[in-house]
Amino acid sequence: MRAAVVYNPVKIDLDAVRAVVDREQQAAGWEDTLWFETSKEDPGRGATTEALEAGVDLVIAAGGDGTVRIVAETLADHDVAFALLPSGTGNLLARNMNLTLDDVEHSIHTAFTGRDRAIDLGRIEIRGEDGTVAKHAFLVMAGVGIDAKMLAATDEDLKAKIGWLAYVKAIIVALRDENTLKLRYQLDDGPTKRMQANTVIVGNCGTLTGNILLLPDAALDDGVFDIMLLRPEGIRHWLQIIGKVVIENGLVQRTPLKRFFGTREIAALNYVKAKRLTARLAEPQEIELDGDGFGTAVGFRTTVDAGALRIRVPQDA
């Protein structure tokens, strides 16, 4: 058995990680691990392809959400286990899988001794203004609207210094815009509908940075997307949304109290489920995947690739 580490050199202490990997691979009786570095020009696809060509049994992604996403996208068509060494600001997939954060020893021990859990992968085709279609994958969420505008407005230097708090400034900038999406959309094979919205988020799982539970019913292995349609009109609707997400989703739904309170429907926020969402936008809009901006789109189609990835989790998880 042999593993490979695909790592972002900016995100990890390479010498420290190497020492832990050497210790764990020896204890598990594995061959020497292979190491592949990402770069700004190639954030992971080439490195992961090299690892696959070397015939490894396990790929460990050591980096932020962008590194994890592109390694997963490259691995999805291969029967190779995938382990995470969370090393970024968001670590969204690790959070949603309740994996250990900021603990190199535990993460690497899990990589060599854990069991595999099959999870879904989101596939998306993004149509640009010039008519070209780009194909990508996502693990957590894809979104158009205020979330994508927020990410586009985020100061990366500030994010490197203060982490997710840098998004607060970006949210203020995004909220100053009109933030109205006009779109036609279709869920699975249903009828095409028209809608005006502030934000559309397609979720493979539901928790964001700061432990915000945006999609309370989303699951990584249920074979469907949870889709959020956000349509606020004025401050009253925004207060309802904050109450729904922060209090109901964030507090009530995570305790036994949810049996007594249930869920409260509000007009400004709707949840739907589907295996496929096709959307056509009236105007080009910013689009994001797993917290990274992917430019502007005039349309997109998302589909679920059920059970496409084998993620390594602790034996007792």
From TrEMBL:
Keywords: ATP-binding, Kinase, Lipid biosynthesis, Lipid metabolism, Nucleotide-binding, Phospholipid biosynthesis, Phospholipid metabolism, Transferase. InterPro entries: ATP-NAD_kinase_N (IPR017438), Diacylglycerol_kinase_cat_dom (IPR001206), Lipid_Phosphate_FormReg (IPR050187), NAD/diacylglycerol_kinase_sf (IPR016064), YegS/DAGK_C (IPR045540). Residues 1-128 form the DAGKc domain. It holds the Pfam family DAGK_cat. The keyword Lipid metabolism applies. It comes from the Bacteria. GO terms for molecular function: ATP binding; kinase activity. PROSITE patterns: DAGK. Belongs to the diacylglycerol/lipid kinase family. This is Diacylglycerol kinase family enzyme. It comes from Frigoribacterium faeni.
